[in-house]
Design a protein that fits this description.
Elements (H helix, E strand, L loop, with lengths): L21 E4 L11 H10 L4 E3 L5 H6 L6 E6 L4 H5 L2 H13 L6 E7 L3 H4 L7 H14 L7 E3 L1 E3 L3 E2 L8 E2 L4 H14 L3 E4 L2 H6 L7 H4 L10 E2 L6 E2 L2 H15 L7 E6 L14 H16 L14 E3 L48 E4 L5 H12 L21 H15 L13 E4 L19 E3 L2 E3 L35 E2 L1
């Protein structure tokens, strides 16, 4: 999607029915506070992400990934494609610098040559297959071709007439590229890389595609899409696009090349022209996608054959140009706090930010006491936090000071809002921590204690409609300005397969 971004993807490298799928995540660099490579790797480990994709071959991150066992897909950026596609020596130098220098310590398992070249950089299309072959030759010369696959990601827009899937075919104008490309993938045992974005399919359908169909939500049988030629039933856009690619390959007499989805996701925020780019929809899409991939259900055309998928993306990119949605595809903010809590109960330990319950909101050290008091008043008033545990004689009354009470109220609000992005700020006097602030009988919401009910890993503190719930009221709380960054809506993600 981006041309200057570094992406981490969780990928599923499943090519047969007896293998399990993997989930992948992209990481971009257009962040106001880009995490360091060690911080990125720490987050990957904490979330049990074992497969990632880089949009380039950044040396610092490849070094940080050394000895972690995490499987890495590196990429040849589009701006280097023409040089590599015209020179075997240039390709060999790229492999020496970006692959040989890091293996075996860093577990590089695939190379993505370019990104959506046919649609994003059509002038480079004539050298695309040459670039793949030159990269492959350099791997063969280094005896790395058996452990590292070579392919190139395509936009799903190269598939025409994608529904019904059985009638889909690749844009014929690209046959001079696609035919030799597919032969190359066959001969090297590689896979077709495909970027699948049901969000854009939905947005561009002018109401023809139902939102539930795009979000993997359950549909009654009479609402499922049926391919009249095969009688296969489709319950979501993702499967239909993947099967369309399979049918398009078979139209060119290629039936043994598996598909890996190198990008998929849904934005959690958009502008007025994108009303369905919401937290709710982002969470729904990505949660359902992850479960769909991890369950190894496959597609109607290939049931039981998992579709390895990379989620776009790991971090939000607040400096990225373009629409609001372009900045909000991430699962996490730059500080490692989840944008939303995924609905993954029972899905295992992958992306387990919904089960760890180790993220809390506390008063920032050294914060202005008057600002803390104002924020405390707001949380216990308009914020509808149940502050009764802070009353005299109650378990969280002591220590009786504004820092302690504000910490309780801030965290209760943060948990009440499902740890959504922007709900632990309070005009700069609050911060995120992974240290449980509970003490003695004062159990903070989010710690799976008795003060909150844990639902899918999110602690929802009881709320009160009262504007006077026992907290101090020395300073006015204003007109609700602390909620300006709270987003309420429908969510999304990109698939992680393991």
């Amino acid at each position: 999607m981006a041309t200057l971004l570094l992406f981490f993807l969780l990928a599923v490298s499943v090519v047969s029915a007896d293998e399990d799928a993997f989930l992948g995540v992209n990481i971009g660099t257009d962040l106001s506070d880009m995490p360091s490579p060690t911080q990125v790797v720490a987050l990957l480990k904490a979330q049990n992400i074992r497969h990632i994709r880089l949009y380039d071959a950044d040396r610092a991150i490849l070094l940080a990934l050394a000895n972690t066992g995490i499987q890495v897909t590196v990429s040849v950026p589009n701006d280097q494609l023409l040089g590599i596609g015209q020179s075997n020596a240039t390709a060999a130098n790229w492999i020496a610098r970006n692959v040989i220098a890091h293996v075996p310590a860093t577990n590089i398992t695939a190379i993505a040559v370019g990104s959506e070249v046919l649609t994003a950089l059509p002038n480079a299309a004539p050298v695309l297959v040459s670039a793949l072959k030159f990269i492959q030759s350099a791997l063969v010369a280094s005896n790395l071709d058996h452990q590292i696959k070579v392919s190139t990601p395509h936009s799903s827009s190269i598939i025409l007439d994608s529904f019904p899937p059985s009638q889909a075919f690749f844009n014929r104008s690209w046959d001079p590229v696609m035919v030799p490309l597919l032969k190359f993938l066959q001969s090297t045992g590689s896979y077709l890389m495909l970027n699948v974005y049901p969000y854009y399919d939905y947005m561009q359908s002018n109401g023809v595609i139902p939102l539930d169909y795009a979000l993997f939500r359950p549909l009654p049988p009479n609402k499922e899409a049926v391919d009249a030629n095969t009688l296969l039933h489709y319950t979501n856009v993702f499967d239909a696009v993947v099967d369309a690619a399979y049918f398009a390959m078979s139209y060119l007499n290629v039936t043994n090349v598996p598909i890996v989805v190198t990008e998929s996701g849904w934005p959690s925020k958009g502008d007025s022209s994108e009303p369905d780019a919401t937290l709710e929809n982002g969470n729904t899409y990505n949660s359902n996608l992850i479960k769909h991939v991890l369950n190894n259900t496959g597609t109607p055309k290939h049931p039981g054959i998992a579709v390895s998928t990379y989620i776009y993306e790991l971090y939000n990119e607040d400096l990225r140009p373009g629409s609001v949605s372009e900045k909000n595809w991430g699962l996490f903010n730059a500080n490692g706090v989840p944008v939303y809590i995924l609905h993954l109960t029972g899905a295992g330990t992958v992306l387990a930010n919904d089960t760890t319950n180790q993220t809390f909101c506390v008063a920032k050290s050294g914060a202005d006491p008057k600002m803390l008091q104002a924020a405390l008043d707001w949380a216990c008033g308009p914020g509808k936090v149940d502050c009764s545990p802070l009353l005299q004689g109650q378990p969280c009354y002591e220590p009786n000071n504004v820092v302690s009470h504000a910490t309780y109220a801030f965290n209760a609000y943060f948990q009440q809002m499902a740890k959504s992005s922007g709900t632990c700020d309070f005009k700069g006097v609050a911060t995120i921590t992974t240290t449980d602030p509970s003490r003695g009988s004062c159990i903070f919401p989010g710690s799976a204690g008795k003060n909150g009910t844990v639902v899918n890993g999110t602690s929802l503190a009881p709320s009160s409609n009262s504007t006077s719930s026992g907290c101090f009221s020395l300073y006015p709380h204003g007109d609700g300005s602390f909620t300006s960054s709270v987003i309420v809506g429908i969510l999304l993600l990109s698939a992680v397969l393991f």
